[in-house]
Amino acid sequence: MSDVQRYLLTVGPDRGKALDIAQDTAKRLESQQTSLIEVVQSLGEFINDEDATIRARTIDYLSQVVGQLPPTFLSRQQIQVLCQFLCDRIEDGGAIGGLRKLQGLGRFNQEMAITTFRALLEHFQDLQLRPQAQRLQILELLNDLMSKHRNALKDLGDQSVVGITDLVSGEKDPRNLMIVFSVLKVVMVEWEISGHAETLFDSVFCYFPITFRPPPDDPYGITAQDLKSRLRDCIAASSYFAPYAFPQLIDKLDSTSPNVKKDVLQTISACARTYSISTLSSYSVTLWDSIKFEILNVQEEDLAEEALVSLQAIAIRLSQGTESTDLKTPIARFLRPITKECNGQLREPQHKQAKPVGQILSALGIASPVAFFLIVKAVIPPLNTLYQDADGIGKQRALLEVLVQLLDSAIAVYGTPSIPAPTSTIENPLVPFKDRLFELSSQALMSTAADEVSFRVVALKALLKLCLLRKYLQNNEIGMAVQYFDEIVLLEDPSGKDDLKKEAIQALVELSKIKPDLIMNITFPAFMAKLPYSSPANNQDYLITLEGLAQLSVERFVSDTLIRRLLNRLDAVLQNDGSSAYPQAILSTLHYVLSQRDLPQDPNLQSYHEKLVVGLINRVVLASIGQNPMTALNEDTTLEILGRIATMIIRALDEHKQKSVALQVYSLFAEEGTFIPVPFRKDTPRLQRSTMILSTSLMAGVGKSMALQYTDVDNGSIQRLLAELVRLALAESVPPIRRTILRQIGLITNKFLPAQETKDVFDYLRNLISGLQETTTLSDNAVRVVFWEAKGLVLRLAQIEEVLSRLLWLLSDHSCGVASARGFGLLLAPDEIISKENGANIRLLAKQKVFNICIPIIAKDFRNAETSIKPNYLIALSGILKYTPTEVIMQELDILLPLLLQSLDLEDSDVKAATIQSLSIISQESPKAVEGHMGSLVSRLLKAASDPKTNSTSVRHNALRCLRVFPGRVKDSTLLPYKNTVVRGLLGVLDDPKRGVRKEAVECRAAWINMDEPQSE
Amino acid sequence: MSEVLNANPTIRNASDLPSRRRQGNGQSSKTPSGLFATTVPSSAYIPDPFLPPSSDSDESSGDDDSVEPIDEQEIYDLISPISDPEHPLTLGSLSVVNLPDIHLTPTFPEKGSASPLTTLTVLITPTITHCSLATVIGLGVRVRLEQALPPRFRVDVRIKEGTHSTAEQVNRQLGDKERVAAALENGTLLGVLRKMLEGCENLET
Amino acid sequence: MPSSSSLPKLSLLSTLTPSSPSRAWLTAPHPTLPLLATCSSDKSVRIYSLTSFTLLSTITGGHKRSVRTCAWKPNLKGESVLATGSFDASVGIWRRYDTDDLNPKPVIAPVDFDARDENIDEYDEDEWRFAIVLDGHESEVKSVAWSTAGNLLATCSRDKSVWIWEEVGDDDYETIAVLQEHEGDVKCVAWHPEEELLASASYDDDIRLWREDIDDWGCVGVLRGHDSTVWCVQWEALTPNIYGEAEKLDVKEKWMKRREASGPRLLSCSDDLSIRVWRRNPKEKVPQSRLSIIRSGSSEEDWIEETRLPVVHSRPIYSVAWSKSGRIVSTGGDGSIVVYEERWRHSGTGTETTMLGARRDTIDGVENNGEPKADEAEPMEDVTGVNEAAEDANGRVATSSESGSGPHATNWVVVAQIEGAHGVFEVNNVAWASRKVPTGEGILEQEDLIVTTGDDGVVKVWRLEI
């Protein structure tokens, strides 16, 4: 039985097997065991069988064989023969496939390509009557010929143009169209088509606009966008299309569908980019006349955007290659009517249609130096006159805004001192107007009534842009601007003009980047001069100044100077003793500025350490022991801020330096004998105890590997220090000092305690706890110690189960249950000392673990607890949830929801607030979960939102927020039964004493009102 | 409404519209804009959880017992973001509603605080004197206010004198409780109104 | 009859529960049974017991929009029939056999807000049968009224028309008239207590009177005077009731005679804050030739504004009601309930005014609001004067002399007032209701209850203690 027979028998049931057969044939051909002739002859009767499928499969067999052959195996003649052979039978299935394979072979030449092409045209007049799959094959073949043998077809000229267009006309299938478009595009771009422009154009434009929605499960993943852009390329392919394209596109611009409009505009832009300048030029004005409406009567913002892009594209194309400002050029002819229209609109600058004028002008101005030149020449003089004659500041402001937008394009075209733009032979047309513009905007800014904020803001923008424009203003002029900005920031009464001050600061920041010298020489002295040398009695204007300075010091060079000067000023201020608010503000400023620096890399780091850390801390210590007392340095707040600065700087120090700091965390760099550290010492006076705040921040800054003072071998272990600190904490009654000692306990337990010692610390903790439960006279401080200690362990996941279970016991304790319940809020609360930056041991899993361990126990114990202590569990719960990531909470909703609903009934407003917080998160994340509880949720939230007597503002506020989450998320059918209840229930809340709450109520109510009754028409 | 009645109205710039912050007395600005808040992280001062809860933690509300009465500005903030049925613009920016045309007066002046009833009068200024949409706009304003104000308010929405050719009829309609109620049950009209009111949600003050 | 010195007191008797979740428009007391029907914007009608003051049943599912109005069909035994008018432009007729026990079904008092919604549907709707829907109006139906005999039903709508339907068979109604002379919404219709004469009040500021003239219904009178929408019209009872003692008997005589001739008076309240009483000018009984009947306009009636009640309300007056015992109660947007009495006028006015003055002081608001305009209420010279002039113009002199004494004879005074009757909410409707009160000589029917319906959806029952 011959291969072909075997093939025919197998191909039906098992194509794979059949292909192997073909492969065998190919192999034997290669190994000369058989010859092509024999193979072709073997096809014998089958190839003329009256059954089409047999014929098809036969041809298919041949094609497969050929396909398996190496590209250079067949000779030219053989290919010639096969090609002819297949072309004759081209209508039989398989032939196309064969030809595709053939034309891929090296020796397939021009004539064969033409033969094939002709065969296609001749046999497939009726292409569109054929099934999609076959059409696709044929188109692919055509595509192959186009790419591999383009010149052959090209030489056919008109014949191929007409042939191809006819062949593909009427195609509907998206996959086929993708090919059709790309084939046609080649013809349009590379053929000489002047004679057939209209035919070709129509053959593609008939598909415009494309409204194709791919089926949900489209395996070919062809999107409407793919088709659109291919079609667009065709339309934009040749200038010859212009006479047909533009009129029809403009026509379609009247469509009511935004999508169509958008497509049209993008197509226009595409044409503008590719059509020849001369062609485009003859339509440019017509295009403007129709496109402008999209911009002047904005209906859809993004359409206006597209329209601007189109105009800009036209302008860019038209000004390509020309630097001539002659008024005959295409670009000039395009811009003339536009500037005319714009000037007209600007006569009523406050009208709706005048708004976009600025956008139009700047969009076109950016297009090219020429465009910008022409626009400025045409627009600035009238703009100037209009501005002078404008009655009322509103008009002036509108005009000024247009100017600002023009300056934007000026900067785009001519760049800024820091960012130069491509050079152009055309000089900046704004130069002649320099003095006028500078004067105009300066006056607008400085000589207008102070309360005309928005107007002055625009003026300020204008002035700033003038300063930023490359090679424009003189240094001294910019200097004047800087002075104006300084004045606004420093001298003007701030009331109600925050915007202006903000803008002014921003402007100075901008300028500090390009003209640091001006800022240094003008702004700094001005600002520093405003800073008093001693604390002013009762005004805080220095805050504004300091804030200004802080924001200005983005540039390194600038901030170096600032830090230096502030330090000096601080010295002086501390000398002339006075209120501490001012020095504290200066310290805060320093902290801010330093926080903006990359300290580890900072060459001045060392001196910061000397001056700010060692120096200042020393003075604090001296002050604390009564030598040169300075009230400012005796205040805990001052120490807090100083501490923060210290931590920040120490973190940046190298290991060696940190070591020495670590050994002085308590002696605080004091000289021997001058100052006795607080730990291991009895009844230390308050001022000295305060220095513990600094100790805490020092140890926060040093690495965890460092040995702290008092923890080296001879002086005793960390545990001994901890025990001592506990002693101090239990005895401490001054809140800030107590807090800092507690922090130390937490920090040391978490960061410095070696892993192997955590067990001992836990035992110690357990004793503390049991001690707590025995003593009837409970000490709040003890509870505090317990929880800070616990915080330290929990965060590093040490003995976490045991710790937590012990803590949970406390909840049922009558004396210290409430305090403990609150303690749970502390465990996971973020802390600035026990933080990642400070190298604390904070394990990612901590929050989840705490949650997973506590929730089940709380839920269980809550059920069995006697009513008087039930609240404790709910309070603890809210403390935990407050810091638990949403996704974790979501896992336990069934347990949580009932508890949360009950905690809404508690008095405690913090708990309520926290609970509502969690509830709104839950409702947002998984509305399904709350559906079952809607009734009780709605009534409780309404209750929490009402009655300002019992519910704090934030509770009321959050309750409304939460209530508002439901509509839209929870399905209407669940909510509608409560619609009336809510809408009515909120009536009273609309009269809440707090504006913020009322606002929330209004929106919440609106959300519910807008839920549609099912039956409503 | 394909036929735009006033294609080119005057527009007020958003930043020029009256707002609470811009009403002088820059309470916010004397104290710095909280730039240094970063230097004093709130977490540094977590209220000692062991102490009984602070009456109110969030700063926005200030002291809880201070009352902020509903004033003209608040009314303005309620209605100025309503969008015009034929422009993508707000009634505020089109100067259809203006702060000076909003008046709050006790319904029974002689009774003073004895009676909580307050009469609110809002005069609206249509963009053009023959704007046939005046009724719809007025209705939008009235509906917004009825939904947003407590029931002790008596809302009168009227066309400002001499700004509209058929002001009389419009006022009568807007004043007719029964008609307004019925209008709100009319699906199509309700659709238009909702579209107008969309802009009112999620406003920042 | 109370002596002029004792003034009635108005006190809250009960608040019906549960109330409508949203605005309620109107409450109609049943003509014979202790039942109240309340129309609500929640598209339903609630039937309350006037003895237990609780909800008996709820009629739902008939209307697609607010139910604005309803009226009980009079003169029925064993069955109650209720007509409802809705913003959905349709009129519904509902039937229910009177059961002996009018006690409420046990109502689970709504503990939780959300409980309420379910409870509503809990009452068996089946007891109320939807008989038929009357379609015809193009827009919201605003008022419905049964003629005294009960055979005719008048309805009116925003479509400016008044329709009259006749019941030609069981649940079979025929439109016998569509009256379209009004130029604005028709807000209210009311039938004359004995004649087949219909009064309608409209957005066009007019009141119109309609009657059948040779089997064709037409407008027989236009009562002009109100400066804004007339919200409500009501008829006086057949027999008038004037309080206090008349000074001169002849005046009283004259007055009664004239009242007899002109029949029940018409009461109207309006957006213009005025409440007015209208009186028919009786034609002299000239025996008319048969021909003259055909003379068109023969049925034209001549009505004049007899007087205005003291101005107390400061917001639109939505509803007035005239009790069989001659008292008038009014309410409206200001949330006040005001009760007025008509008294024989005393020329001396000494005792009276002092007494009234004293009374006024205790009624807040009347002082400033009432005082100045109150004058309008007193001397009718100007008003009648005007009318006389008009009459002269019509070339009729006969009435003038007699009518002159008429208005002088009586005047209206405020006798009781409640402010904020429904808290801060507006009150949409007020009605008189009577109840059986056990006394020494057995059960006696006395009409001393006032029922008010408000935007809060609440219905309140007040007692007027005399």
TrEMBL record, chain A:
Top-level lineage group: Eukaryota
InterPro entries documented for this protein: ARM-like (IPR011989), ARM-type_fold (IPR016024), MMS19 (IPR039920), MMS19_C (IPR024687), MMS19_N (IPR029240)
Subcellular location: Nucleus
Keywords, comma-separated and alphabetical: DNA damage, DNA repair, Nucleus, Repeat
Pfam hit, one: MMS19_N
Domain MMS19 C-terminal: 545-967
Functional description taken from the UniProt entry: Key component of the cytosolic iron-sulfur protein assembly (CIA) complex, a multiprotein complex that mediates the incorporation of iron-sulfur cluster into apoproteins specifically involved in DNA metabolism and genomic integrity. In the CIA complex, MMS19 acts as an adapter between early-acting CIA components and a subset of cellular target iron-sulfur proteins.
Family: Belongs to the MET18/MMS19 family.
Protein name: MMS19 nucleotide excision repair protein
Organism from which the protein derives: Cladonia borealis
Lineage: Eukaryota, Fungi, Dikarya, Ascomycota, Pezizomycotina
TrEMBL record, chain B:
Ranges of compositional bias, category Polar residues: 1-13
Region (Disordered): 1-67
Protein name in the entry: MIP18 family-like domain-containing protein
Coiled coil feature spans: none
SUPFAM superfamilies, per database record: Fe-S cluster assembly (FSCA) domain-like (SSF117916)
Species per Swiss-Prot/TrEMBL record: Cladonia borealis
GO biological process, one term: protein maturation
Domain of life: Eukaryota
Biased composition (Acidic residues): 56-67
InterPro entries tied to this protein: FSCA_dom_sf, MIP18
Family stated for the protein in its record: Belongs to the MIP18 family.
UniProtKB/TrEMBL annotation, chain C:
Repeat as UniProt keyword: yes
SMART domains the record matches: WD40
Annotated stretches, region: Disordered: 362-382
UniProt repeat feature WD, residue ranges: 60-94, 134-166, 179-210, 449-466
Gene3D superfamilies the record matches: YVTN repeat-like/Quinoprotein amine dehydrogenase
Annotated InterPro entries: CIAO1/Cia1 (IPR028608), WD40/YVTN_repeat-like_dom_sf (IPR015943), WD40_repeat_dom_sf (IPR036322), WD40_rpt (IPR001680)
UniProt KW keywords: Repeat, WD repeat
Cellular component annotations (GO), alphabetically ordered: cytosolic [4Fe-4S] assembly targeting complex
SUPFAM superfamilies in UniProt: WD40 repeat-like (SSF50978)
Cited function: Essential component of the cytosolic iron-sulfur (Fe/S) protein assembly machinery. Required for the maturation of extramitochondrial Fe/S proteins.
HAMAP family recorded: ciao1 (MF_03037)
Family: Belongs to the WD repeat CIA1 family.
Protein name listed in UniProt: Probable cytosolic iron-sulfur protein assembly protein 1
Gene behind this protein: CIA1
